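Next comes this protein.

***
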Amino acid sequence: MSDSERSRQQPLYQQVKEALTAEIARNEYDPAAPFITQREVCDRFGVSTITAVRALNDLVADGVLIRRRGQGTFVADAAPPAPRRATTIACVVHGLHGLRGTHMSHILSEIESERSKLVYQLILSNSAESAQREEDALQRAMDNGASGILLYPVEGKSHADAFAEVRRRGVPLVMIDRYRPDVAVDAVIADNTDLGYQLTNWLTDHGHRRIATLWGETDCSSVRDRLAGHIGALRDKQLPILSELTVLRPYESLPKPERAAMLAALLDTPDPPTVFLCANGYVLAAAAHDLLSLGVHVPDEVDLACMDDAGPYDLLPLAAVAGTLPSTDMAGQAMELLAERIAGGIVGNQPARRIVLPVGIRERKAALGHLRTVTPQVGPVS
């Protein structure tokens, strides 16, 4: 087999790695100057970010290159290479409903896939809706020498000092699905403003003029952006913006009797809502259960819509329209951005990036779901 044939059979990252190793051996790089960046590797060899990062990571692991925090990546001195050590990243997820649900499973599956390609070690933590547990997980990641952190943050604006400490130590951190407006870190999110706008446009185009919103969490960017898109669409349609229908208040977390009472009060008006626009699939499930307990038929008496496809899929056919999130793409691009930050070796002086990905909507199929109470027929016992 010729050298050219053998080269073509090698993985792309290995070809890039061998080419760079040969250039380093020919003293084409000044050890006192930063080595070429991941982006330059992509441009020179025509490869993807993941391939470039894998090649650079292998050269670091082999002791050919060395990363100096706050300075960048350099050709290592002639000293014997350090023992090979895998790069470790921490992933802290929100876990609102545990680690189940299609949205979270797609995110974790893609993170694991990209981690495997990059030969990273992964430490997974679930904050379980607790700001304190999230702060503790961030501290553990720093104490254990994690090279980077992926974070699906809890709601609220607590422990900003922990994020400041992560940045001060030069540890790359990328948020997934939502961002913190009070914290300057990288984030990869869905276009939630457009999601709220698209869904509201669809509902108004299909005859709905009174749309009541139902929420789970309230103090997070994804929810507030969706509400902003919803209100923007109402304004563009020149429809009234009624506080009793758009108020940002928790629904799913309320006790069942309080939830049912809230729905009953909204429906018991001269001009009741014709559709409940639910924040996610879990809110949709709670609303469906509560409407059933009130004896309200869906969609005959009131309809349901869902802002995303996270949650129990068996109830989503009840939704006239539902948003679709780019879960896999969000996780993949978050991993690429984190790998780029780790490979670059410089964090503190770089501006935070926010990558916003497009969303979609899907309409209820012709075989729509119905929700209604059924009184069992009691016949004579034979």
Observations:
- The chain is about 40% helix and 15% strand.
